[in-house]
Write a structure and sequence with these properties.
The chain is α/β, with parallel strands linked by helices and about 425 residues long. It contains 15 helices and 17 strands. Strands 1, 2, 3, 4, 5, 14, 15, 16 and 17 form a nine-stranded mixed sheet that branches. The radius of gyration is 21 Å and the shape is globular. The two termini are about 15 Å apart.
Length: about 425
């Protein structure tokens, strides 16, 4: 995407939440967020050129070839980053939701033909163009809500041809959409029911993993280690091969449905960027994550919707681990697309301070993907990925989460104006053309 030629100046903002010193090990307070009161931001050639109090804005920026936005009463914050989603799929799992409301568990529903396998069958039956259309619609909605970067996993193909198809569709949409998409290969999401367990493990390791790398579809890999999915031994085997073959980023679904002992069995944390879910994690492992620099990605929606135990976030914070927050959007346990619901649930459901969750969905999430040197903060030199909201204080992000008047989303310095209509859309403010 071309870099905007226009310099934009965002002036007289009530607050700029910079997160400029993040990522933040442990607890995040208002003092650590780097809040600028009555601030301004200069965006030049797609990047943050300056941020500070409006009174200190240099006259040299106020040139004729700049576009100035007077944003009195608004706040600016880093663009939201969702570090854990399953956005590319066909069909739905409405029946699963109805069955859970009747008292059946996630594992019971899966055993009866629901769960991941239901979505695999629906996805395999969905043509490429429809898969891409559905993905684009989901990305549109996320972008209009202020998400500027999103990690998207494969995992609803569970065969060589289908997993590669999903990643190719994802790559094609990624190239055309303004949101930043980071693909992750999740062939190890579950075992397919139409293939022997050992045969699929061979397909994963001998064919799929090398082919994903050869085609340049993803350098990131994830494994779902849990009851009914991949065992600890299988997961460690996959991680060893992933490192040997050239995957540079490893994410793990860990201790969601049960305590597996995976974290305790890990003796090599190389390339492990994050461990996600952690509902049954032994709190004593918090210190290990802090010492190894592995981010803990917590997913409040799935926890709430499945009635899972709360992750040991207090132990993680006390150990000075980096704690990120993700949505876990997927058709089975969280089909919603409003990130501010995730924000609200993390604050209210887990009693986490607004500041902790705000950092968790911006700079901490960026760290979990190792892009915190590029985005997730409003700081000079970084990409101008930010959101402008028509509220006077960041506390409204929680207080009025379902009514947030998001006015602008900037991605790579390019401004998109968000219009409140029956169908949320974005338009590019094309001053440079």
């Amino acid at each position: 995407m071309t870099v905007p030629a226009v310099t934009y100046i965002l002036r007289r903002l009530a607050q700029v939440i910079t997160c400029g010193e993040g990522p933040y090990p442990g607890r995040v307070t208002a003092e650590r967020l780097g809040i600028v009161e009555q601030g301004s931001i200069v965006i030049h050639r797609g990047r943050i050129a300056w941020v500070g109090p409006d009174r200190d804005l240099s006259a040299e920026w106020l040139r004729q070839d700049t576009v100035e936005l007077d944003l009195v009463g608004h706040i600016a914050l880093p663009g939201l980053i969702d570090p854990h989603t399953h956005l590319i799929y066909g069909g739905d799992r409405l029946k699963d939701w109805m069955e859970r409301l009747r008292g059946r568990s996630y594992l019971e529903i899966a055993a009866q033909g629901g769960g991941i396998w239901k979505t695999v069958q629906d996805t395999r039956a969905t043509p490429d163009e429809e898969l891409k259309r559905l993905l684009e619609l989901r990305l549109d909605r996320l972008f209009a809500f202020g998400v500027t970067t999103v990690e998207v996993k494969s995992g609803y193909g569970l065969s060589e041809a289908e997993e590669l198809r999903l990643l190719r569709c994802l790559q094609q949409v990624q190239a055309a959409h303004p949101i930043g998409v980071m693909p992750t290969f999740l062939g190890a999401h579950a075992y397919p029911r139409d293939m022997d367990r050992g045969a699929y493990l061979d397909v994963l390791t001998q064919r799929l993993m090398p082919e994903v790398l050869r085609q340049g579809l993803s350098l990131s890999i994830d494994v779902f280690c849990d009851a009914g999915h991949f065992t600890v031994e299988e997961t460690l085997y996959l991680l060893t091969l992933a490192r040997q073959q050239g995957f540079v980023a490893i994410h793990l679904h860990a201790d969601e449905m049960s305590h597996t002992g995976l974290l305790e069995a890990m003796d090599d944390w190389k390339n492990v960027y994050s461990v996600d879910h952690l509902n049954h994690m032994d709190a004593r492992m918090a210190r290990v994550l802090a010492e190894t620099g592995v981010a803990a990605v917590l997913l409040p929606t799935t926890c709430f919707h499945l009635g899972l135990p709360t992750p040991p976030f207090q132990a993680l914070l006390e150990a000075d681990a980096v704690v990120a927050i993700g949505s876990d959007h997927n058709p089975g346990t969280h089909p919603g697309l409003n990130p501010w619901y995730v924000f609200w649930l993390a604050c209210v459901g887990w009693n986490l301070p607004v500041e902790q969750v705000l950092a968790g969905m911006t700079v901490q999430a960026a760290y979990s993907l190792r892009i915190h040197g590029q985005t997730g903060r409003i700081a000079p030199g970084l990409r101008a990925d930010l959101v402008v909201v028509d509220v006077p204080h960041y506390g409204y992000l929680l207080y009025q989460w379902d009514l947030l008047p998001i006015r602008w989303v900037f991605k790579n310095g390019r401004p998109y104006q968000i219009r409140e209509t029956a169908e949320i859309r974005y338009t590019w403010m094309a001053h440079e053309e």
